[in-house]
Design brief:
The protein is mainly beta. About 0% of the residues lie in helices and about 55% in strands. The strands form two sheets. It has a four-stranded antiparallel β-sheet with strand order 3-2-5-6, with no helix packed on it. A two-stranded antiparallel sheet has the order 1-4.
C-alpha cells in the first residue's frame, strides 16, 4: 500500500488554508492537520480500512471524502 496520499483541493487558491479531520470507522478523530491547496497525507501508520476525511475552509464550508487504504 502507498504510505502517502495526495490531497488536492481544486477550488483552493494558493493562500487558502484548510483543516483536515480524519475519522476511523468508529467515528473517532485519528488525525487533525492543516492543509493548503496541495498536500501530502502520510498514512503509513494507519491500518488498512476505510476512513472519512472532512476538509473545512476558513468559512467553515465542509467537504467529505472517503479514503480506502488497502
Amino acid at each position: 500500500a502507498d504510505s502517502k496520499v495526495n490531497i488536492n483541493i481544486s477550488s483552493a487558491k494558493p493562500a487558502d488554508v484548510f483543516s483536515l479531520e480524519m475519522y476511523d470507522t468508529n467515528g473517532k478523530v485519528i488525525r487533525y492537520q492543516t492543509l493548503y491547496h496541495k498536500n501530502v497525507l502520510d498514512v503509513s501508520s494507519f491500518p488498512k480500512g476505510i476512513y472519512q476525511l472532512i476538509i473545512s475552509n476558513e468559512k467553515d464550508n465542509k467537504e467529505k471524502r472517503r479514503l480506502v487504504l488497502q
